[in-house]
C-alpha cells in the first residue's frame, strides 16, 4: 500500500467510526481488533462490509446518522433540508431499504493511541437527529422506522454500528450510491473524503438544535415519591453536597455538570435520582437523569 492510499484509508476509517479498537464485520460479527487502513483495504479488496461504532467508550462521538428503513426519498430529503436549515450538513447514502443520512461534527483529530478528540456527548447528537425527524416526518419518528445513531446504549460498546459508505452490503452484495447535494453520485473514495470535508458541522449548531427539542422524561419526579435512602450508598443530596451544591429533594438546584444559570437540576422526592433539563449535559442522560449510584460515580471520577 502506498503512502497516499494509507492516509486516505486512515481518514476514511476515522471519519466514519467513533472508535478504532473494534468494529463489526459483515452480518453483525464483532471483531476485537484495531480498525486500521490495512483492515479497510482488505474489506474493499475482498468485498467485505465494515460497520463502525457510532460512539466511544465514554459515550462521546463526532458523527451521527439516521437509517431510514421506510419512508420515501422525499421524506429523506425533507429531513436533510430541516437539518441544513439549522446549520447541520448531512451526507445522503443509499441503503438496502432506503437511505442513510450521516452528520459530521467538527471533523476529528487522532493521537498516537487512536483516541479521537473534538467529540461531543452522543446523547446530544442523537437528540438533535431525533428532533429533525420529529419536526419533519413525525410518523416515521413515532414508528421507529427511521433509526437514529448513536443509539442510547450502555456498556463497553455503546452507540450501535452502521455500515460505512461505499462498503458492499453483506446481504445484497451491492455497493449503494453516495449522493452530492446536486443529486449526482460520488464516484470514489477520494472524491467522498474531499466532499465530506466540506460538510463538517459546528458543535454549537448541534447543541442549539438539540436544545430546541422538547424535554420528555421517561420517569417523572412523582414516580419517586416515597422517601427512602438508597441502600447502596448516600443520597443524591449528600453526593451533590460534595461538589458544594446545596440541594433538597423535590426541588431544583444549579447543575454542577455544566455552566448552569437557571437551576436546571431537579432532585427526586425520594432523593435517589436527579435530572438535568439541558440536553447537552451528562446529567440529562437521554432524558433518564442519573440514579444515586451513577451520580456518585461521576462525582468520584472528578476526584
What's this entry about, in short?
The chain is α+β, with helices and mostly antiparallel strands and 303 residues long. It is 30% helix and 18% strand.
Tell me what the structure shows:
It is a single chain. The strands form five sheets. The protein has a five-stranded antiparallel sheet. β15 (265-267) and β16 form a beta hairpin. The protein contains nine helices and 17 strands. α1 (3-15) crosses α2 and α4 (122-136) crosses α7 (203-211). The longest helix is centred in the middle third of the chain and has 15 residues, at 122-136. The protein has helices spanning 3-15, 37-46, 73-85, 122-136, 138-143, 189-196, 203-211, 236-241, 292-301; strands at 23-25, 29-31, 50-53, 60-61, 63-68, 90-94, 99-104, 109-110, 116-117, 120-121, 146-149, 161-163, 178-179, 252-253, 265-267, 273-276, 290-291. It folds into two domains: 3-211, Alpha-Beta Complex (DNA primase, PRIM domain), CATH 3.90.920; 221-301, no CATH class. Mean pLDDT is 86; it is low at 218-231. The protein has 303 residues and is α+β, with helices and mostly antiparallel strands. The radius of gyration is 21 Å and the shape is globular.
What is the topology?
Elements: H1 3-15, E1 23-25, E2 29-31, H2 37-46, E3 50-53, E4 60-61, E5 63-68, H3 73-85, E6 90-94, E7 99-104, E8 109-110, E9 116-117, E10 120-121, H4 122-136, H5 138-143, E11 146-149, E12 161-163, E13 178-179, H6 189-196, H7 203-211, H8 236-241, E14 252-253, E15 265-267, E16 273-276, E17 290-291, H9 292-301
Antiparallel strand pairs: 1-2, 1-3, 3-12, 4-10, 5-7, 5-11, 6-7, 6-13, 8-9, 14-15, 15-16, 16-17
Helix pairs in contact: 1-2, 3-4, 4-7
Amino acid at each position: 500500500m502506498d503512502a497516499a492510499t494509507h492516509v486516505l484509508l486512515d481518514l476514511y476509517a476515522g471519519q466514519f467510526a467513533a472508535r478504532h479498537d473494534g468494529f463489526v464485520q459483515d452480518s453483525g460479527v464483532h471483531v476485537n481488533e484495531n480498525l486500521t487502513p490495512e483492515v479497510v483495504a482488505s474489506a474493499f479488496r475482498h468485498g467485505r462490509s465494515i460497520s463502525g461504532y457510532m460512539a466511544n467508550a465514554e459515550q462521546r462521538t463526532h458523527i451521527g446518522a439516521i437509517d431510514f428503513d421506510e419512508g420515501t426519498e422525499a421524506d429523506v430529503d425533507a429531513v436533510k433540508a430541516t437539518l441544513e436549515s439549522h446549520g447541520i450538513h448531512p451526507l445522503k447514502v443509499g441503503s438496502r431499504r432506503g437511505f442513510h443520512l450521516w452528520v459530521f461534527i467538527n471533523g476529528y483529530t487522532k493521537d498516537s493511541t487512536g483516541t479521537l478528540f473534538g467529540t461531543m456527548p452522543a446523547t446530544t447528537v442523537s437528540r438533535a437527529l431525533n428532533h429533525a425527524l420529529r419536526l419533519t416526518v413525525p410518523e416515521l419518528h413515532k414508528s421507529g422506522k427511521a433509526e437514529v445513531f448513536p443509539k442510547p446504549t450502555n456498556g463497553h460498546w455503546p452507540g450501535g454500528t452502521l455500515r460505512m459508505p461505499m462498503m458492499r452490503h453483506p446481504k445484497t452484495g451491492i455497493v449503494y450510491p453516495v449522493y452530492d447535494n446536486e443529486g449526482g453520485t460520488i464516484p470514489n473514495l477520494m472524491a467522498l473524503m474531499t466532499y465530506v470535508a466540506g460538510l463538517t458541522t459546528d458543535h454549537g449548531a448541534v447543541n442549539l438544535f438539540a436544545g430546541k427539542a422538547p424535554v420528555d422524561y421517561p420517569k417523572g419526579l412523582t414516580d419517586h415519591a416515597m422517601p427512602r435512602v438508597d441502600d447502596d450508598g448516600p443520597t443524591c443530596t449528600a453526593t451533590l453536597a460534595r461538589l458544594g451544591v446545596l440541594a433538597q429533594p423535590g426541588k431544583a438546584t444549579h447543575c454542577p455538570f455544566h455552566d448552569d444559570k437557571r437551576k436546571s437540576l431537579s432532585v427526586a422526592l425520594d432523593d435517589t435520582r436527579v435530572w438535568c433539563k439541558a440536553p447537552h449535559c451528562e446529567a440529562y442522560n437521554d432524558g433518564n437523569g442519573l440514579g444515586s449510584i451513577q451520580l456518585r460515580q461521576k462525582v468520584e471520577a472528578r476526584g
